[in-house]
Design a protein that fits this description.
The complex is a heterodimer of chains A (about 100) and B (about 170). Chain A is mostly helical and about 100 residues long. Chain A contains three helices and no strands. The longest helix of chain A has about 30 residues. Chain B is mainly α. Chain B contains seven helices and no strands. The longest helix of chain B has 25 residues. Chain B is globular, with a radius of gyration of 20 Å. Classes of the chains: A mainly alpha (about 100), B mainly alpha (about 170). Chains A and B meet through α1, α2 and α3 of A and α1, α2, α3, α5 and α6 of B.
């Protein structure tokens, strides 16, 4: 199986990023779209931590900042979902066409 | 201290992470997707431990799997998705998704192939082991003081924003 290098971690992070992108682009349920965004942020975090193994501690500090951002984004996003559900009785993104003419 | 059976743990954890991630974007039921996302997060915490980042791993489990996912489950409970399960789960953009995934995958593969020589193969040097939490704390309160304070301000704004969004009448 050989030794595990940074490249292995980069490939895992790339796979998670692509899966998250597909989820954001193809799902209709807005809750699951937010979960896919969390997947993308986690892929970034894995990259940062993998590089911090090579180049020092800064990567881990930035990973913590990314986690903070993810928490803020999830709180605001889920608040928007609740407001949207109260108005339209649905959570599908393609039915959110109020701003489309 | 030499790690034991690194490849087995690495492949096990990363395959678990990817399989759970695929489950997140394919499950019909949002609760199942949320539980799969917890699986991905915990597997990634294991990978962080393998990279000698125990503090980030602990934050990952406490904050992500403990905090953010509870928030998600609460919202799933509040917006009552029973009717949504019977509807079509995917929109008609699968072509866009496929093209974006292929382009992104090709780009990342190209970058990783080109950059192969840049990264040192040996992962054993660089970061000193032990006292990781202490060093992260010193970095957060020393060199990264201003970003740390800005992050706290961001969280305050997010709290106020979430309350204003979710409130019926302000």
């Amino acid at each position: 199986m050989g030794e595990i290098t940074t490249l292995h971690y980069l490939v895992v992070a790339a796979a998670l990023l692509i899966i998250g992108t597909i989820g954001v682009l193809t799902r209709r349920n807005v809750v699951i779209i937010l979960m896919s965004i969390e997947l993308i942020l986690n892929a970034v975090n894995l990259n940062l931590v993998a590089f911090s193994r090579l180049y020092g501690l800064q990567g881990q500090v930035f990973a913590i900042f990314v986690i903070t951002d993810a928490a803020a984004e999830a709180a605001v996003g889920l608040g928007i979902i609740i407001a949207f559900f109260r108005n339209k009785e649905t959570v599908n993104v393609d039915e959110a066409d109020l701003l489309k003419w | 201290m030499n790690p034991v059976a690194t490849p087995i743990f690495f492949y096990g954890l990363s395959i678990a992470a990817i399989v759970f991630a695929i489950a997140v974007i394919t499950r019909k039921n949002a609760v199942h997707a949320a539980l799969s996302l917890i699986g991905t997060l915990v597997s990634l915490a294991g990978l962080y431990l393998m990279l000698y980042a125990p503090f980030v791993a602990a934050v990952q489990i406490v904050l992500y799997a403990g905090g953010i996912m509870v928030l998600f489950l609460f919202v799933i409970m509040l917006v009552n998705l029973d009717q949504n399960i019977r509807e079509i789960q995917f929109n008609k953009q699968w072509m866009v998704g496929l093209i974006a995934a292929l382009a992104l995958g090709g780009l990342l593969l190209f970058v990783i192939r080109q950059g192969r020589e840049i990264f040192p193969v040996n992962l054993s040097a660089a970061l000193p082991e032990g006292a990781n939490t202490q060093m992260v704390g010193l970095a957060l309160y020393g060199q990264y003081m201003l970003p740390f304070e800005i992050a706290s301000l961001l969280l305050l704004v997010a709290i106020v924003g979430a309350v204003v969004m979710a409130k019926k009448r302000i």
